[in-house]
Amino acid sequence: MPAMYHELLNQDLQPLGTAVTAWRRLAEACEETHDGAHARVSRPLIDAKWAGQSADTGLRAMAVTQSILTTASRNALLLAAVLDEASTRMHAARQRLRTAVAEAEDAGHRVGEDGTVAARPRQPSPDDLADQGRLLRESVEVAGYQSRIDEAVDEARDASARAGRALRELDPFTLDKEYGAQTTDEAAARLAEAHGIGISSDAIPTDRPPAEAARWWSGLTDLERDILVASYPTEIGALDGLPAETRDEANRAALDARLNDLRAREHDLGHHDRFVYDGLTRLQGILDERTGASDEQRLYLLGFGTQDDGRAIVAQGNPDTAAHTAVLVPGTGTDINGVGGQLVRTERMQEAAIRLGRGDVSVISWLDYDAPEISDSVITRGRANEAAPDLRDFTAGLKAAHAGADSHLTVVGHSYGSTAVGAADSGGGGLGADDIIVLGSPGMTVSNVEQLHISPECLWVGAASDDFVAHNLSGLSLGRSPQHFAFGDVREMPVDTTGHSAYWDRSSLSLTNMGRIIAGEPPLNESAGQ
């Protein structure tokens, strides 16, 4: 112990902090280089359908290089985490040691160069019971100080040993034997869990309310968050209540990994996987096209999935900082390959709301349920009921993640999407929306507005005069038509478009009024010359 005691007592731990910062910067540099290579080199070539033997060789080489950059980034983050954990524990051990030494010396005892505590010299009288009592108390006191010193040194020794073991495992060539991002993620996660870095998948509150997830995330250090995003991008990206920027970063990494996996099996994909692969490839292309966009036009990938016909949650504008946020729930026939069309709608909704100058606006396309095909599923409530709890969690997560004052929240349901919105708002604690807009609704799963959590004066119903779904399918099996007087005293949103899907036509009163409600303003009864 003597050498370890003296070293810890006088140890300068600042170099450890400097090393942590350096490794984090290296991780960021590798990740930025990876993203730049993908966006400016390989992605354009893939989009251009570059093919042939040269293309196969070239794209494979680029994939290997980009995967190695991902490996290097994760390795650097893990190294930083190991050193940070060691630094934290060493600082605490050194502080406990110095405190124990100072208190022992203040009590008049002597602490030797080897860390041994000796009681202050006394010549007690063998016949003086009080003197003997003081001696006994001092012996107990000395033993206490000695125990504290020994424990501090042992803690430092353990921190050093654990860090050493972890660092020996972090061979830069072990994480990427197959040059696959998914392999890298899994290996990084295993190392993070196995070597006491303080990161574990068990700690991720995947089944807890969004508010709890938000509190958990806010209690982590920046480095812990970085490691979690790098090691568990799928889990972190799907967690309602976390910041939009965090979920976007995690989901883009998970999307890269999923596409890499599908791309490796491209020639053997079945119908479903081929369908989803095409949709996710289009989604990634859309995201890449917006790289470097303005704050208003920036896209945030808040979720995606390969189940059913594919899933995607994409925000235009940051919902965490927006004064007004809208969530568009699409309806029948929407799938992963239709995300581009949904984003055209959200972009127009955002433009219409921003034009009013009431603050920043974020509009989100929420395709996180299995929207019905043109089949019997469109006239049943099953898909809407399945979507309801996830939609409630998502809107609760928006509120939990929002910075500062609450954002004004509008939920917009089109076609069967309004059925999903109705199911969500009628169950649990509702959607927590300030306004709900339903367009071309076939029913909201309820017979009266009083069965919803939204106030009647905040439920806006729009239907074109020739909207077949709203006027011919509504009120059959999905609940009473919200257009019907018996549904309750709801608010009409005036529209001037025709058909079932034209509500987003530019320069229309329909789109203008959507924007006004999203921005917290009442709708107009006639076009304002837009």
Structural features, described:
There is one protein chain. The chain is α/β, with parallel strands linked by helices. It folds into two domains: 197 residues; 225 residues, 3-Layer(aba) Sandwich (Rossmann fold). The protein is built from 15 helices and ten strands. It has an eight-stranded mixed β-sheet. A two-stranded antiparallel ribbon has the order 1-2. Strand 5, helix 11 and strand 6 form a beta-alpha-beta unit. The longest helix is centred in the first third of the chain and has 54 residues. It is elongated. The protein starts with a helix and ends in a 12-residue tail after the last helix. The mean pLDDT is 86. This is DUF1023 domain-containing protein. Keywords: Coiled coil. InterPro entries: AB_hydrolase_fold, DUF1023.
User: CATH topology of the largest domain, what is it called?
Assistant: Rossmann fold
Distance between the termini: 81 Å
Classify the helix fraction into a percent range.
40-55%
SS content category: alpha/beta
CATH-assigned homologous superfamily of the largest domain: Alpha/Beta hydrolase fold, catalytic domain
Q: Over all CA atoms, what is the radius of gyration?
A: 30 Å
What would you call the shape? elongated
Overall residue-averaged pLDDT value: 86
Report the CATH architecture of the largest domain. Answer: 3-Layer(aba) Sandwich
CATH class of the largest domain: Alpha Beta
Total beta strands? 10
> What are the low-pLDDT stretches, counting only 5+ consecutive residues below 50?
none
- Largest sheet, strands/sense/barrel: 8 strands, mixed
List SSEs in N-to-C order. HHHEEHHHHHHHEEEHEHEHEEHEH
Measured by DSSP, the beta-strand proportion falls in 5-15%
Give the helix tally. Answer: 15
